[in-house]
Amino acid sequence: MELLDARRSVLVVIDYQGRLMEMVEQPARIIAVAKRLLRLAGMFEVPVVLTEQYPKGLGPTHPEIRAAFDALATPKRYLDKTAFGCAGDPAFLRLLDEVRPRTGEAPRQIVVAGIEAHVCVMQTVIELLRAGEQVHLAWDAVSGRGAEYVRHALGRMATAGAVMTNHESVGFEWMRDKKDPRFREMSDLFKGGQPA
Predict the structure, then answer these.
(1) Residue 159 counted as domain residue
(2) What 8-state DSSP symbol labels residue 108?
């Protein structure tokens, strides 16, 4: 197990879309946390891939999350998909290679956030692990329709080898040292603690 390294990381933001967002557990929390993760990605120059599952039927990404994604200056890509697991779409791995090419022996570190835990998120995580990626799952940015679905999906992903983490841990691991000039900005972002 390793700490996250911003120079090896990619943030993958999965399917925070219209109709689904109205049905998942704790939608306000996951919106707030997703926005924080996107801010952190911008702060630490971590590339981002944002996906939408059949947007014609499910609707677009939640407007606050999409605005945070659009505001990023870091490398970013968007994928409109029909496969539930992101890696089920051949374009997904190509997009990862575009924003964070593999270098050397160390695997990429994929930070995953999204919905739904037991469908698109879980299939993506298991596919990424099978492809040799290191997956860090921000549990506080993951939800689904029903607490039991979420709980069991998180357990299955952990058993499969995903590292369970949260958005604050992601930020502090990307930063590593209080002397980092971005410390105050990150500290301000985390004021008030975990979003409800």
Answers:
(1) yes
(2) P
